[in-house]
Each structure stands twice: as C-alpha cells, then as structure tokens.
Amino acid sequence: MEKLKCIVSYDGSQFSGFQIQPHKRTVQAEVEEALKRMHKGQAIRIHSSGRTDKGVHARGQVFHYETSLHIPAARWEKALQALLPNDIEIIEVTSVSASFHARFDAVEKEYRYYILNRDKRDVFTRNYMYFERDKLNMEKLVAACKQFEGTHDFTTFSSARASVKGSRVRTLHEVNATKTDDVIEIIFRGDGFLYHMVRIITGVILDVAKGKLMPSDIESLFKAKNREKVGMTMPPEGLYLWHVTYKEND
Amino acid sequence: MEKLKCIVSYDGSQFSGFQIQPHKRTVQAEVEEALKRMHKGQAIRIHSSGRTDKGVHARGQVFHYETSLHIPAARWEKALQALLPNDIEIIEVTSVSASFHARFDAVEKEYRYYILNRDKRDVFTRNYMYFERDKLNMEKLVAACKQFEGTHDFTTFSSARASVKGSRVRTLHEVNATKTDDVIEIIFRGDGFLYHMVRIITGVILDVAKGKLMPSDIESLFKAKNREKVGMTMPPEGLYLWHVTYKEND
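^ Those are the sequences you sent over. The predicted structure of the assembly is below.
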C-alpha cells in the first residue's frame, strides 16, 4: 500500500460542504466516487485536514488516502481530475510516509475571508465574496484583527453547538486585512480553528469597522466565554480554506 | 406612457442567453416576468440593444420599455431588483424620450473577452474566463488585435448561419489587449457586431498569439470573405457585453 497526500481546490457554492452525507452533493463523495472508479469498485476512504461547511471554498484543502494501485504520484493528478466535476480541481498529489495524517499532522491552517465593500452588488462575485454596503473603516478593521492574534480561549468566538472535547484555547499567528479597490481580504493563520470561528470573528471585526464596537471591547468578549455576547456568523460565500501547513519532514 | 432606459448586468452562466425562448431560462423572460408582476398581470415587452448568447455575460446591457405606472425613475431600480433573481442586477433606470430605442440608437458597443493563461485551471473563474494552457505571446496578440481595427467587411469573421440582410461592413474603433497577472483582457469597441464576430475574431487572435498564424495573414482572411478559412468560435464564458453608448441627446 502507498499513502498519497492530495491538495485540492473547490468552488463550494454547489456543494453541501466537504464531508460525505447521504443524498447530498459533497466534495468527499465526489472524490471517493472517482477513487472507487479507479480502484474497480473498491471503496477508498479519504481523510481531510478538516471539514468545510456548505458554501465554503477551498484553495488548498488537503486529504490523504491509501492505494494498492501502482501509479506514479505525478500521474495521479490527471487520472483523478479526469473523473471529477469541474468545480473540483486537483492541485497536487505527492507520495507520503505511512505515518502521515492530513488532520493530525497539520501544524498551521490559513483561512481567508473576502468582502466586496461598495454601493452596488456584483453578480459575478455573488458566490465568492460577502457583499457589504456599509462603509468599513480599514484602520478600525485592522485594529480589530490585531486583537485576535496570539493565544486565547475562543469560546465566545466559536459555535455553541460545537461539541468540542477539551480546550478551546487556540493560537492565531496572524490576523490581518488589506483592501484592494473595493475588495477587503482578511487573513487568518493559526494552529487550529473551532467550528464557525473564522466566520464569527469576521462578524465582530466588521462590527468594529462599522463603529458598533471598539477594538478594546474585544478583550472583555474573550473573558465572557459566551457565544451569545457577539453577533452573527458571517455567511459562507466569502470564506476560503487557503492553505494547510505540515511538518517539514512530510 | 413613460419610456424608461435600463442598464443591466447579468451572469450568463445559468441563462440560455438574453432572448426569450419557450421553456428556457432567459434574461428577457426573467425581466418581463418581474415587470408583469409590477403591472398587475399586464405583459410588458422589453427591447434590448441586442441579444447575447447562452453563457455570455453582461456588465452593461441596455433595454427600454414603456410603462403606465407613475414611479420616479430612481425608484424603479430597487422595485425591479426586488423581483429579480440574484444573477441579474439592475444598474440604473432613467427616463428617456418617447423616440429612444435601445437597439437603433446605439452608436457604439464594447465587448470584452477574458482569458486565464496559466498551467492550472481555476475553479473560481471557470464560468467567467476562457482557460488557455498554451503560452500566449502578448506582442503578437496585440499586433493581431490591431489588424481588426478600422472599417472592414467582416464576412470571414462572423457566423455563416447568421441571416444578415445587407452589409457585413463594420467599423471597430478599438481592438486592444492587456495582461494583468495571468489574465488577458481583450477590448472590442465598434459601431456594430455580427453574430459570433467577437468570439471568432478572438479565436484568430489566439492563433496568432500561439504562432499558428502571422498578424499579416489576417488581411488575406478579410479578403477571402469565407467563415471556413478561420478556426473555432471561442466559448461564451470569457465574453462580456461591457457597455453600450448612445447619442448624447439620449
């Protein structure tokens, strides 16, 4: 058996998320179906770095799988792509050691959230950016980002529905935002993310950028450890799983 | 009765083109249905600057219609938008003189064609740009563009199926291309365009950029007046009706 690591990009707008679910179109189901066809009907399970929700996109999602087929890693990319729909794109397939695990070996993940901030909606980006008509103050927006950097208990900023066993302490290595024309890009790099964490934090960052909250309010929100203290979970169309980083020896 | 001029943007990827057709989802059908609802069941016909084909996009398509409703032009935009799907966006509605006609009064149209020129496909732009893996030489590409400027008989560069009564002579005021990162934008501005003309010309421009044709070959292609002398009609996803210009007094 050989273990392969695959980097994949997908347009989440037509998927009910990454993870396989009965009677739903999911990325995992499409990839496993393609692998099953390559393995002459044998079911092959893939293991991802983590789920993405309905409507969330990926530039660099990672999964691994094991195979008995003797295909050079470089050929897997085209072989798999040929059996996949055009909203999934295989970026790279590489051979990895038997101990590699796409989820447990990830040392950092990067997410990005895109916002179109202008008066008029845009039909061409409606599934790829969040549309915000209210004027966002970039200075306040960046100041809010910085409040989330470092090691914190993110209970306030994760879904109360999430059944996390253990700590909700995570470390964000970078939270930053830039604006190019009408598009705001917010980057989140961290050692781990709780359920809905990026989308809830982005909502708070926008509240600061609109003047509804002060950047200094964020410290007391962390202390409250209560999801109900903050606003809405931002919609999925602006969110991208951008990159997953692994230990060097992988 | 009041006559209104409407500028509209649409994502062509989920439409069978602009023009109404039985049992097909078209832009005209969606807009006329919205107008019918506003007019309590009365059918309202819209008249566009011209059709766009299945899959072709618009940033600035124009149509006109007549109404007996007493709504200020500025309110029409929101009223109409509220009844339209989110792949159609009303940009502007203005009151025009009774003699205005969206098709016959147009003095210039601008189309743009977008090409993603790199090794890897991109899931996020698959419906919005043509993907070209072959390396395109920009110097040759721009030189080819320039061959199409001016007044010519465009018979070779229009669909043989088009039933054009009268002349196939048109004047292109500008044909030019620029590249930003991996994206090539080709702009066409002219007094009129024949069926498939932009898509056929773009195919020839790419043949020059790939070294299959010389820019100087284009002159003899014009003279041949034969559609069969040139290559494929480029696919619709890269094409945008960008802007329609009217006489100043409109």
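Chain A has a mean pLDDT of 95. The interface with chain B takes residues 9-11, 57, 86-89, 91, 120-124, 126, 128 of chain A (CB under 8 Å).

Shout if you want it in another format.
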